[in-house]
C-alpha cells in the first residue's frame, strides 16, 4: 500500500487540492490509528522512520481522495501551526519530498474541495492497492477510546472541573497509607483512585492500568506509547496508551483513564502517594515534540 508507484504519485500530485494535514512522528501522530507510532505507521503501510512523516490529505481534479506522504515534516508542521492560528498557508510539498501517494484518507475529513466532484476513492486503475479509510468509530472500541483520550488532553480544564477533590482521601493518616495506596478504605473508596469498589466495575482495571504503566518504566514500550506535551504553569500533559487503555495526566495533578471495557467512561485517578512518582518516571521517558 505504501509503494511509490510513479503513476499513483503523479495522479495524486497533479492538481491536488489540499484539505488538511497531519503529522506522523513518534511524538505526535493520529492516535486513532494506533496505540503507538509503529502501529500508526503500520496502519498506512509505512516503515516507522525516526524522523517521521507529514500526511497531506486532499482531492485530485476528479475529486478522488489521496493521502500524500512526505518526509519534509517541518513543512507540514508549519502549515498546521499556521492554520491553527487562523492564518492562511499554502501547503505545496516538493515532488522530491513525496514518499508515497496512498489512495483514500486514513482520517475523517469533513470538508471537500470546491468545484470538483464529491470526495470518492480513486478507481483501481489509478491506485495500487485498496484505498485507506478512517477506523470505525461508530461503536466504542480502541479507536473511540483513543479519540476520547485526545479530547480529555485537549480540554483538560473542562474535565478537571468535573472532579471534586473531596472525593479523594486526604494525604497522611495511618503509617500504612503509602503501602496500602490501592487498598479499599473503610468507606469503600480507594486511596489512590477515589473510585467506588462496590459499584464501579472499572476499579480493578484501574489498578491493572497503573501496574502496566509502571512496567513501562523498567521495560520501555514501543515508541510513542508515552508522550509528553505542553501544559500551562510549567507542567506537562502526559499521554500513555496500552492494550485496552489510555491514560491522560498532568504531571502536577491527577490522571484520567479510559478503557475499552468501560464504554464512554472517563475514570479519575487521584494523586495519592504513588501517582506523582509514576508520572515523574513516565515524563522522563516520554517522547516530546521537537
Question: What is the topology?
Answer:
Layout: H1 6-13, E1 17-24, H2 37-43, E2 53-59, E3 65-70, H3 73-84, E4 98-103, H4 142-154, H5 156-161, H6 203-218, E5 226-230, E6 236-242, E7 245-250, E8 255-259, E9 267-269, H7 275-285
Antiparallel strand pairs: 1-2, 2-3, 3-4, 5-6, 6-7, 7-8, 8-9
Overview of the molecule:
- The chain is of the alpha+beta class.
- 25% of the residues lie in helices and 18% in strands.
- It has seven helices and nine strands, in the order αβαββαβαααβββββα.
- The chain has helices at residues 6-13, 37-43, 73-84, 142-154, 156-161, 203-218, 275-285, and strands spanning 17-24, 53-59, 65-70, 98-103, 226-230, 236-242, 245-250, 255-259, 267-269.
- Strands 5-6-7-8-9 form a five-stranded antiparallel β-sheet, with helices on both faces. It has a four-stranded antiparallel β-sheet with strand order 1-2-3-4.
- β7 (245-250) and β8 form a beta hairpin.
- α6 packs across α7.
- The longest helix is centred in the C-terminal third of the chain and has 16 residues, at 203-218.
Structure, briefly:
By secondary structure, the protein is of the alpha+beta class. Helices cover 25% and strands 18% of the residues.
Amino acid at each position: 500500500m505504501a509503494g511509490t508507484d510513479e503513476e499513483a504519485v503523479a495522479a495524486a500530485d497533479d492538481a491536488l487540492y489540499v484539505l488538511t494535514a497531519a503529522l506522523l512522528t513518534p511524538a505526535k501522530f493520529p492516535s486513532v490509528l494506533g496505540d503507538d507510532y509503529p502501529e500508526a505507521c503500520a496502519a498506512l503501510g509505512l516503515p516507522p522512520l525516526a524522523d517521521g512523516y507529514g500526511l497531506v490529505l486532499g482531492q485530485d481534479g476528479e475529486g478522488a481522495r489521496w493521502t500524500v506522504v512526505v518526509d519534509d515534516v517541518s513543512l507540514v508542521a508549519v502549515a498546521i501551526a499556521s492554520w491553527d492560528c487562523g492564518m492562511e498557508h499554502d501547503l505545496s510539498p516538493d515532488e522530491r519530498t513525496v514518499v508515497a501517494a496512498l489512495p483514500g484518507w486514513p482520517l475523517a475529513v469533513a470538508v471537500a474541495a470546491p468545484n470538483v466532484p464529491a470526495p470518492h476513492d480513486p478507481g483501481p486503475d489509478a491506485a495500487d492497492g485498496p484505498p485507506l479509510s478512517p477506523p470505525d468509530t461508530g461503536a466504542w472500541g480502541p479507536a473511540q477510546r483513543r479519540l476520547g483520550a485526545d479530547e480529555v488532553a485537549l480540554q483538560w480544564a473542562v474535565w478537571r472541573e468535573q472532579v471534586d477533590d473531596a472525593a479523594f482521601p486526604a494525604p497522611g493518616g495511618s503509617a500504612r497509607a503509602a503501602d496500602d495506596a490501592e487498598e479499599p478504605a473503610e468507606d469503600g473508596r480507594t486511596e489512590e483512585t477515589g473510585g467506588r469498589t462496590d459499584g464501579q466495575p472499572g476499579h480493578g482495571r484501574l489498578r491493572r492500568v497503573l501496574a502496566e504503566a509502571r512496567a513501562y518504566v523498567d521495560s520501555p514500550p514501543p515508541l510513542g506509547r508515552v508522550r509528553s506535551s505542553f501544559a500551562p504553569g510549567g507542567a506537562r500533559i502526559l499521554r500513555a496508551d496500552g492494550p485496552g487503555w489510555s491514560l491522560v495526566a498532568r504531571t502536577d495533578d491527577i490522571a484520567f483513564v479510559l478503557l475499552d471495557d468501560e464504554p464512554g467512561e472517563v475514570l479519575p485517578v487521584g494523586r495519592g502517594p504513588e501517582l506523582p512518582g509514576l508520572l515523574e518516571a513516565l515524563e522522563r521517558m516520554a517522547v516530546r515534540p521537537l
